């Protein structure tokens, strides 16, 4: 099995002494869509910041695409792993949208025509064409978030890491972002998302990692989000579909539905049985 991320016994304390990570062991499959879930303060952001070397391991090790995360590999790591912060205002700072998205590729000294090509493609991917000359400051929050994503996409990272990409986005921007992420994943890139949104994780991810109190509590397919033990220990909630189907066990199902269409089909089958 090929892994995009391999973490062994990672521990990390912040400068004020807060022990944010207390021995994380985790492997994330290459090409997967992985959701990292956990309550506030669980250590998700601290973990993500280790994936592109913003934080370096104080104890244990982190490898991305086989590369050890350490100071010597810093430049390669930043090219391999693109990190989109929770708040776009921590990331978007240039005078125009175009300059902002071009900033990363220019910093890697790519030729001018290659920079132009990448910026154009990244802006197309996040559907921000036509806003190239706007000041990011004059855009909406959701649009600034997409500028931040485009800036990372323009670096063509093999692993894309997003911290709470849905925070403060309206429902249509959320589903648009989901399509953008799926498009990037279909090119074979690994996508890792930290989120509080269990419904999103249940529907979108093919691997779910639950972090609590600086440790990995559980990892597996999205169906782990229907397990009592996992939900009780993690302080998360069941996804809405799971909540609904747990209340009507008489519908009868072999496997808890993961998608609305699947759930609708089960209900339809049950109604037909009743009618006949
Ligand atoms: N820069 C920092 N300095 C000191 N403590 C920090 C810092 N950043 C995070 N922490 C602490 O480390 C722990 C883990 O925080 P982290 O932000 O990684 O959690 P999280 O799971 O991302 O939380 P949330 O879901 O609320 O964003 C928390 O106790 C937090 O207060």
UniProtKB/TrEMBL annotation:
InterPro entries: AAA+_ATPase, ABC_transporter-like_ATP-bd, ABC_transporter-like_CS, ABC_transpr_CbiO/EcfA_su, Co_trans_ATP-bd, ECF_ABC_transporter_ATP-bd, P-loop_NTPase. Keywords: ATP-binding, Cell membrane, Membrane, Nucleotide-binding, Translocase, Transport. One of its GO terms (molecular function) is ATP hydrolysis activity. Its main location: membrane. It comes from the Bacteria. It is found in: Cell membrane. GO terms for biological process: cobalt ion transport. It is a peripheral membrane protein. GO terms for cellular component: ATP-binding cassette (ABC) transporter complex. CDD domains: ABC_cobalt_CbiO_domain1 (cd03225). Residues 5-238 form the ABC transporter domain. The keyword Chloroplast does not apply. Probably part of an ABC transporter complex. Responsible for energy coupling to the transport system. Part of an ABC transporter complex. Responsible for energy coupling to the transport system. Belongs to the ABC transporter superfamily. This is ABC transporter ATP-binding protein. It comes from Biomaibacter acetigenes. The lineage of its organism: Bacteria, Bacillati, Bacillota, Clostridia, Thermosediminibacterales.
């Amino acid at each position: 099995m090929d892994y995009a991320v391999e973490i062994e016994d990672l521990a990390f304390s912040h400068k004020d002494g807060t022990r944010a990570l207390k021995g994380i062991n985790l492997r994330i499959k290459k090409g997967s869509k992985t959701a990292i879930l956990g309550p506030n303060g669980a250590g998700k952001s601290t973990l993500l910041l280790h994936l592109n070397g913003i934080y370096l391991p104080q104890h244990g090790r982190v490898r991305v695409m086989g590369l050890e995360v350490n100071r010597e590999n810093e430049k390669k790591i930043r090219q391999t792993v693109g990190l989109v912060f929770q708040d776009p205002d921590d990331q978007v700072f240039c005078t125009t949208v175009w300059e902002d998205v071009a900033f990363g590729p220019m910093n890697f000294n790519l030729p001018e025509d290659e920079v132009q090509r990448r910026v154009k493609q990244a802006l197309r991917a996040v559907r921000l064409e036509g806003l190239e000359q706007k000041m990011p400051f004059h855009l909406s929050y959701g649009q600034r978030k997409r500028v931040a994503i485009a800036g990372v996409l323009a670096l063509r990272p093999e692993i894309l890491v997003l911290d709470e990409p849905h925070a403060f986005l309206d429902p249509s921007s959320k589903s648009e972002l989901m399509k953008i992420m799926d498009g990037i994943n279909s090119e074979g890139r690994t996508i890792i998302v930290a989120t509080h949104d269990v419904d999103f994780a249940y529907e979108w991810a093919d691997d779910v990692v639950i972090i609590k109190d600086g440790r990995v509590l559980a990892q597996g397919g999205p169906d782990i989000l229907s397990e009592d033990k996992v939900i009780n220990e993690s302080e998360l909630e069941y996804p809405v579909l799971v909540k609904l189907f747990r209340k009507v066990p008489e519908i009868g199902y072999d496997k808890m539905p993961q998608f609305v269409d699947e759930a609708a089909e089960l209900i339809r089958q049950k109604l037909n049985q009743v009618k006949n």
